[in-house]
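Lecture notes, unit on protein representations.

Consider one protein chain, 89 amino acids long.
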Amino acid sequence: MLEQFSDDAELVFEGVPTGPFHGKETIAAAYESNPPHDEVDVLSSEQADDGTIVARYAWRANGGRPAGRMIFTPRGEQIARLVVTFEPA
């Protein structure tokens, strides 16, 4: 997914004490030093009038139980900003 980020992208996490990360290189370094321990499954997605895409996700190991949202702000064909929320179970 890293190749989808713009060079000046921002990655923000809500609900966990990390980030924000600014710039594709910084985002890559963050994922390299602390990669996710599981894969995500997208449960649903919708696009707002302003082009923002909100996708609800679940960690695959948790059997489809909703875990939060990924909020994508596109710029052209790239991701300019991604906010990942972690919601309590």
